[in-house]
## 1
Amino acid sequence: QKTGFKNLLLERKLAAAGDSLEKKEAQLSEVLTTANLEPSVLGAVSKRLEEVVETKDASIRELQSELSRVTVAHNRLLAGFEAKLAEYGVPSEELGFRPIREGDPFSTTASMMP
């Protein structure tokens, strides 16, 4: 469950970063359009914006990679757990809960992975 929580937390961070980036880009676009800046100033602002976007893209890729690692670890842990249950003859229905798997309605990993 700890892995599932960490997975969910990373998914939410990734979604929040993407939403924040979209909002900031829209705001900057409005400011630049309204300001009627000189081409040299506009070029400097655009260059800085590209640097920021590259940094954010790197952060997103890092979060996606971490999400992938956590998902693999979660799946391995779940498989091991189910193997132990089977080894001792305990049906998984007796747990009282259903472990979250990739692709379940509560898991958004499948839709967020590139």
Note: The longest helix spans residues 39-87.
## 2
Amino acid sequence: NSTRESTAVELPSVHAFNLTNGLELLPRVVPLLNSQQCEFHTVFTRIQSTLCEQALYDKLIMELDHSILMPLALGQHVYVYDVCSRNKKRGVPRAIWYGVEFVRYALVYYWHGKDS
């Protein structure tokens, strides 16, 4: 509908810092974003790699709060920052390569159905 498209508002990106190790990046990322002169929101989230390791997926989802779920539901760009990683070969924190990817899968499944 052209009326709906013309009234759509571009929502700012959301930058989510994973507690506690993602906080290390806060002093670097926020000034960088400010220098880009773009609108953004900073939030904090808790995606625990231990829950991934122990296959406690329901708890992983239940610990997510509105500060990250609502932007995802609205289709905003959400960037998650974390620096902790026990897997030096992969070089990416487990909370990112496992946790964030599982959250993405689960939300698409529940919000849009298993055929999406």
Note: Strands lie at 13-18, 40-45, 78-81.
## 3
Amino acid sequence: LKHLMLEPRTHTGSSYHRNTQNRQPPSIQRNGTAPTGGDGGPEEGHGPDPADEETELRAERNRLLSEAEAVAAKISNIDEVLVDYARRREQKEREEREEAERVRREELQRQARVHEE
């Protein structure tokens, strides 16, 4: 229980991660292992297992990569829609210019007929 309180984990919605806030670092010997002596360290089968943490990190990395692919696909779809909107807007503007030109020509023709009479 003491070790659990010193090494809390939080659930992020997809996996557990170590909570590094308010955490006192475990004492490490010069060779990189935790000291023995009944403190619940890795030698007694307790505490953080680096292999488990590595597995968690790899899973989190893969999840993030998957999310990144999904986000990239969504951005691509949005870009396609935006291109279509731009194309439609340009076509509408072109049609409006052509209609304005047609109306102007008809008005000139009408004025020419009135002037001839």
Note: The mean pLDDT is 77.
## 4
Amino acid sequence: MPHDGSKKDNTIYIKNIPDYYNNLDALNKQFKKFGPITNIKVDLKNKFTTIEFLKPKHAKAALSNKSPLFGNKDILVTADPNATLEDEAKTTKLETVLMDRLKFLIAIKKFI
């Protein structure tokens, strides 16, 4: 494993990142807009990066960005060092189903 599996609130993990983006300059340029970065660990062999922000709110801001990183939808940005693209797809599908149900319930409430 490229990491110890422990989770930190101020840390994000990037998986499946191509070598040409997996460098300090590109990553710092991409993520500094979310807040001060205290550490970036690049693992070229495993296409994995760990980014630590000064505060948890900075990591949360980076995670809430829904645009694909570097325009590549196969790059995974996550708070879970053990997450996979399949896990994220399941979560996204569940969120969509829940939002659809919530909209339905709101629509029903308007008629009651």
Note: The first strand starts at residue 11 and ends at 15.
